[in-house]
Amino acid sequence: MPTATESESRTAKPTFPSDLTEWVEKQELLSWIVEDVDSLDWGNPELLDFLRANPAFQPRFLLVLLSFSYALGVYESGDVAELYFGEPSLKRMFPDQTPSPSLVTRFRRDHRGLLKWCVAQAFKRAARMHFALGDGVVPAGLRRLATDAATARVDMSRHLDRSVQAE
């Protein structure tokens, strides 16, 4: 007869660590995020027109920065902006950037769905590696957990920023 802990362990949902570098090397995590961001259609004519009209706007950089931050468990906009200055890999990839907390907040608000997708991709890749799933399809339940975890992180960042503003 199974003990209580045996049956609990069989029914317990897998969870993601607060910092995905518990499952994967930081540099590999960053390269996955860059790869996923680069898989988006950056050649869309409407986007290109918008970027020509707004040359200071760097959506690729901000999407990588925020996704990487949330995967590391860094949520507040001020901390996300500071991560760039303290992370040599990001500075090498994106030299001469000056992210501010207000820019991070605005980007997160305007591109919430895209951020959730990108963070969920990082979770799925980490789960595939951690649970040795190979290159096959990530099981539906695990995909759902990855999406829920990504949504929770994007939402948490918004709530933390609101609490900082209220102080």
Features:
globular, 0% strand, 167 residues, 69% helix, mainly alpha
* Overall number of strands: 0
Main sheet record? none
**How are helices and strands ordered from N to C?**
HHHHHHHHH
Count of discrete structural domains: 1
Mean pLDDT: 91
Distance between the termini: 54 Å
Q: Helical region count?
A: 9
Low-confidence stretches: none
The chain-level structural class is mainly alpha
Note down, in words, how this protein is organized.
There is one protein chain. The protein is an all-alpha fold and 167 residues long. The protein has one domain (24-166). Helix content is 69%, strand content 0%. It has nine helices and no strands. It has helices at 4-11, 26-38, 45-53, 59-72, 77-86, 88-93, 101-110, 112-130, 140-166. α2 (26-38) packs across α8 (112-130) and α4 (59-72) crosses α5. The radius of gyration is 18 Å and the shape is globular. The relative contact order is 0.14.
Which helices and strands, and how do they pair?
Elements: H1 4-11, H2 26-38, H3 45-53, H4 59-72, H5 77-86, H6 88-93, H7 101-110, H8 112-130, H9 140-166
Helix pairs in contact: 2-4, 2-8, 4-5, 4-8, 5-7, 8-9
